[in-house]
Amino acid sequence: MLDLSVLATFAVASAALAVVPGPTVTLIVANSLRRGPMAGLANVLGTQLGVATMMLVLMAGLDAIVALIGEAFVVLKLLGAAYLVWLGIKHLRSDGRLERMEGDARSMAGYAVQGFFVIWSNPKALLFFGAFIPQFVDRTEPVWLQIAVLGGIFMLVASVFDSIYALLAGRAGAVLTRPRVRFVERVAGGLMVAGGTALAFARR
After folding, report:
1. What is the pTM of this model?
2. Tens of pLDDT, residues 21-76
3. Residues 6+ apart with CB under 8 A from 61
4. What is the largest CA-CA distance in the chain?
5. Which sequence spans correspond to the domains of the chain?
6. Which band of pLDDT confidence, cut at 50, 70 and 90, is reported for residue 167?
7. Closest-CA residue to 87 (of 60, 61, 119)
8. Backbone angles phi and psi of 23, in degrees to 5
9. Across all residues in the chain, what is the average pLDDT?
10. Cα–chain-centroid distance for residue 105?
């Protein structure tokens, strides 16, 4: 089974990956600014549920599943790109008005679903995990169990960093003026549109 040195190295590597902002962090920050930290934390929950399903795919056998998907991978990529562009346009059209969310269950579920689809909007993330995690796996031991452990560590580390982004952005949103919130949302929207466009034209 994995020893402590391998787990520690993996945790540090996961932290280095999690701290770099990507589409999910952009979404978390934008929603936390506008709707408060609860919206961002709901995004975090959905994102980690998405990562958990990716870990299940890895445990089931990434190569076999990618082969089974075949050309459907292109369709998934285009759908994901379209979703990112759509979210980006929504943020670009924002007027910067703050609507603080106080934990309404329906709203929380909606933002969680949003986070889930954003992580899955880029199927290349699945391929990335398929290349990153196996580097720490001992092939002489049960692979699925090691992937579960490593995936759990990554999710924990990513949740901590993403939650910090949500809390800091939520606090900033409480004191920022409306024009500044609108500026941040437009930057976030532009990044999402750019990311979605790049994903659409990226080669498999």
Report:
1. 0.77
2. 778 888 898 888 878 889 999 999 999 999 999 898 888 876 666 565 555 666 76
3. none
4. 57
5. 4-201
6. very high
7. 119
8. -55, -40
9. 79
10. 21
Instruction: With CA atoms as reference, report the closest residue to 131 among 147, 116, 142.
Output: 147
Calculate helix-pair angle for 37-69, 124-132, nearest 10 degrees.
Answer: 80
CB neighbours of residue 115 within 10 Å: 27
The set of residues, in sequence order, having a beta carbon less than 8 Å from that of 52 and lying 6+ positions away, is 151, 155
Nearest to 121, CA basis, from 82, 151, 95, 176? 82
The tokens describing 182, both together, are 């609108």
**Residues 6+ away with beta carbon under 8 Å from 44:** 28, 115, 159, 162, 163, 166
Q: Tell me whether residue 167 is exposed, middle or buried, using C-beta atoms within 10 angstroms of its C-beta: 0 to 12, 13 to 18, 19 or more.
A: middle
HEC string of the chain?
CCCHHHHHHHHHHHHHHHCCCCHHHHHHHHHHHHHCHHHHHHHHHHHHHHHHHHHHHHHHHHHHHHHHHCCHHHHHHHHHHHHHHHHHHHHHCCCCCCCCCCCCHHHHHHHHHHHHHHHHCCCHHHHHHHHHHHHHCCCCCCHHHHHHHHHHHHHHHHHHHHHHHHHHHHHHHHHCCHHHHHHHHHHHHHHHHHHHHHHHHCCC
Task: Give yes or no for residue 142 having a pLDDT over 80.
Answer: yes
